[in-house]
Design brief:
With about 550 residues, the protein is an alpha/beta fold. It has two domains: about 325 residues, no CATH class; about 170 residues, Jelly Rolls (Sandwich), CATH 2.60.120. The protein has twelve helices and 24 strands. The strands form three sheets. Strands 13, 14, 15, 16, 17, 18, 19, 20, 21, 22, 23 and 24 form a twelve-stranded antiparallel beta sheet that branches. A nine-stranded mixed beta sheet has the order 1-9-10-12-11-2-3-4-5, with helices on both faces. Strand 16 and strand 17 form a beta hairpin. The longest helix has 14 residues. The radius of gyration is 24 Å and the shape is elongated. Pfam families: Esterase_PHB. This is Poly (3-hydroxybutyrate) depolymerase. GO terms for molecular function: hydrolase activity. InterPro entries: AB_hydrolase_fold, Esterase_phb. Keywords: Hydrolase, Signal.
C-alpha cells in the first residue's frame, strides 16, 4: 500500500532522480483515525429509560417470509463517522432516502479516499476541504450514474448539529456540510450555537453537554431528537415514557456482499427497533441511525448503549417509526481499530461513498429487507483490483510518437498524463491481474478509479474538447513491464472508456465498452493505457496516483 501523503506543490515533468520508495505502510495515519472518539470507556452504563432486551429475529415481520413492513419514507441520521455515513447514504441513494441528519460531521465524500485529508480537512481545518470541488464531484458522479440524480436533493430536509465545544470535528467542517446541502437546494436546519462537545445529543445522555468522552451521548438540556425529527418529518408527537416495542437483533452477514460482515468492518449483529403499531401493519417511516466510532455493539463491550440512549425508540413508539441500527465493528488491524464507519476508503473499498460501496450496499439491503425485497445473493457481485505497482508507469514521446522513452518521475510525483515542460506527451500504462475475476461469471460492467496528485494547466482544454481515453489490451502491450514501444502499441479495444475533466481528488471513468469487457483476460494480465486523444500544444499535464494504486472495479453476475 502506498503512503497517504499531504498534497505536494505542482511539479514539472523534467527528470528528477527518485530518492525514496513510493509505498510504505500507513499505520500511523490509520491509527490516527481513532481521533474520532479517542477516550476510554466509562464503567457506568448509559442512563436511559428501561428498554426491551434485544431478541433474535429478522428484518421481516415473520422470519423467512417476505411480508414487508409498510414503510413510506426513509431517513438517515448519524454522529461523527456515522454522520458521514448518513450523508453518503442520502446522496448516493437520494431516490430512496428522503432526508438526513448529521451530528459532528462534514460534507459528502470530504475525505476523497485519503485518510490524511480526512484528518486535516474533514476533522480539523489544517487543509482546505475545497467545497466547490466536492459539489462538482457529486454532480459528475450523478452524471455517470454512480450516485442518484442530484435533483433529488432539492427540498429534502437536512438537520446539521455542531457543538461550539467540539474540537474533534471543527465547526467550519460542519458548516461546509450545511452549505453543501444548501447549494443543492435542500432545506437545512443548522444548530451551531449549543456549547456541546463531540457527541450525539440526547436527553438520555449520561454526559454533560460540553465534554467529549465515552459514551459520546451528551445531555445539553434540550430535546435534540424533537428538533431533528420535527425538521425531517414535520410535527411529531411527544416521546413515550419508555419504549414498548421490540428490539430485534439480526444477522448482518445475511446482507453483506460476500456474506461476511467482518470483511467490511461490520459486526455480526445489527439491531432494529419496531413499535407494535408497525409490526401490526400500520404505515410507518424508517430511520437509519448510525453510531460513531467506539460506539458499536462489538467495540470493547460497548453493547447497546447507543441503541438505548439515542432517544429515538421513544419517538418511534408515538410516531410510527422503525429505527434500524446497523453496526460497524473494529478490525484486528490498524485499518479501523475503533469501529468507525467507512468514510475515507479503508480496506481498499474505493466505492465507499457511492453505488457499489460495500457498507452502503449492505445497509441498503437491510432497508430493502424491511420493505420486503429479497436480499441479493451474498456470494459477491464485484471485485476491485489494484494496479500492479511493478508494472505501472508512463511513457513520454513527441506528439508524433517519435523519441519515446519511459518516464522517471513516478515514484516522486505519480503517473503522468498530458504535455510536460520538456515538450513530451505522456501516456500512463497500468497492469491488472484480471485472473481474479471469478470464473463462470458474466462481466456486466467495469470502470477505473484514479486520484489526482498534482498538475499544471488544463489538458482537457488544450486543445478545446480534448478527451482522456482508456485503451485496453488483453494481455500486455509488449512485455508487461513498461517500455517505450507501449506509447503507440495497438490496443485490443481503443478508446474503450473516458475520464471527464477533474482537477482534484478522485475520478471515476465511464464504463468500459463491450469490446473492452470481452478483452479482460481471465487467464492473467490485462493492461490499460491512459492518454489524451490530442497532443496538447502547450504545457498542460497532471500526475495521478502518487499515493495509492489505480483500481479496476469489475461487476459480474
Amino acid at each position: 500500500m502506498r503512503p497517504l501523503r499531504a498534497t505536494r506543490p505542482t511539479r514539472s515533468l523534467r527528470s528528477v532522480r527518485p530518492r525514496r520508495p513510493r509505498r510504505r505502510p500507513a499505520a500511523l495515519l490509520l491509527a490516527a483515525a481513532g481521533a474520532l472518539f479517542s477516550l476510554a470507556l466509562p464503567a457506568s452504563p448509559v442512563s436511559a429509560a428501561a428498554a426491551p432486551a434485544p431478541a433474535p429475529g429478522a428484518l421481516t415481520p415473520v422470519a423467512g417470509a417476505l411480508t414487508p413492513y409498510d414503510i413510506s419514507t426513509v431517513y438517515t441520521a448519524g454522529v461523527s463517522s456515522g454522520g458521514y455515513m448518513a450523508t453518503q447514504l442520502h446522496v448516493a441513494y437520494s431516490g430512496t432516502v428522503s432526508g438526513s441528519a448529521a451530528f459532528a460531521s462534514g460534507p459528502y465524500d470530504c475525505a476523497q479516499g485519503m485518510l490524511a485529508t480526512a484528518l486535516n480537512a474533514c476533522m480539523d481545518t489544517l487543509q482546505d476541504l475545497r467545497l466547490a470541488q466536492l459539489e462538482q464531484a457529486t454532480r459528475d458522479r450523478a452524471a455517470q450514474g454512480l450516485v442518484d440524480p442530484v435533483a433529488n436533493l432539492a427540498d429534502d430536509p437536512v438537520y446539521v448539529f455542531s457543538g461550539t465545544r467540539d474540537t474533534t470535528v471543527r465547526q467550519p467542517v460542519a458548516t461546509a456540510l450545511a452549505d453543501y446541502y444548501t447549494h443543492f437546494g435542500a432545506r437545512v436546519r443548522y444548530n451551531r450555537t449549543t456549547a456541546a462537545g463531540h457527541a450525539w445529543i440526547s436527553p438520555l445522555g449520561p454526559n454533560s453537554c460540553a465534554v467529549t468522552q465515552s459514551p459520546f451521548l451528551n445531555d445539553c438540556g434540550f430535546d435534540a431528537e424533537a428538533e431533528m425529527l420535527g425538521h425531517l418529518m414535520g410535527p411529531v408527537s411527544a416521546p413515550a415514557a419508555q419504549p414498548s416495542g421490540s428490539l430485534i437483533r439480526f444477522d448482518q452477514n445475511a446482507y453483506a456482499p460476500g456474506g461476511s460482515a467482518a470483511a467490511l468492518s461490520m459486526g455480526d449483529d445489527g439491531f432494529a427497533y419496531v413499535p407494535a403499531s408497525c409490526a401490526g401493519g400500520a404505515k410507518c417511516r424508517l430511520m437509519v441511525a448510525l453510531h460513531g466510532c467506539k460506539q458499536g455493539y462489538a467495540y470493547q463491550g460497548f453493547g447497546t448503549r447507543f441503541v438505548e440512549g439515542a432517544h429515538l425508540n421513544e419517538y418511534a413508539d408515538t410516531n410510527g417509526m422503525i429505527v434500524l441500527y446497523p453496526q460497524a465493528a473494529p478490525t484486528a488491524t490498524l485499518e479501523n481499530p475503533n469501529g468507525c464507519w467507512n468514510w475515507w476508503g479503508y480496506l481498499g473499498d474505493s466505492a465507499y461513498a457511492r453505488h457499489g460501496g460495500k457498507q452502503i450496499e449492505t445497509v441498503m439491503r437491510m432497508i430493502g429487507a424491511l420493505r420486503g425485497s429479497t436480499p441479493p445473493p451474498t456470494g459477491g457481485t464485484s471485485v476491485t483490483l489494484p494496479s500492479v505497482d511493478a508494472q505501472d508507469g508512463y511513457v513520454k514521446a513527441a506528439a508524433d510518437g517519435s523519441g519515446a522513452a519511459v518516464g522517471t518521475l513516478e515514484d516522486l510525483y505519480g503517473l503522468a498524463l498530458g504535455r510536460g515542460t520538456d515538450g513530451k506527451v505522456n501516456r500512463t500504462l497500468l497492469s491488472f491481474d484480471t485472473s481474479r475475476i471469478p470464473a463462470g461469471k458474466e462481466i456486466t460492467r467495469a470502470y477505473l478509479t484514479v486520484d489526482r496528485s498534482s498538475g499544471a494547466g488544463d489538458p482537457w482544454a488544450s486543445p478545446a474538447g480534448n478527451r482522456l481515453l482508456v485503451d485496453v489490451r488483453s494481455g500486455c502491450f509488449g512485455g508487461c513491464a513498461v517500455e517505450p514501444a507501449d506509447w503507440a502499441a495497438p490496443a485490443t479495444a481503443a478508446g474503450a472508456a473516458e475520464f471527464g475533466p477533474f482537477f482534484s481528488g478522485r475520478a471515476v471513468s465511464g464504463d468500459l465498452s463491450a469490446a473492452a469487457l470481452a478483452a479482460l483476460n481471465r487467464g492473467g494480465t490485462t493492461q490499460m493505457r491512459l492518454g489524451f486523444a490530442a497532443a496538447p500544444p502547450s504545457i498542460a499535464y497532471l500526475f495521478v496516483n502518487q499515493s495509492a494504486p489505480v483500481t479496476l472495479t469489475v461487476e459480474y453476475r
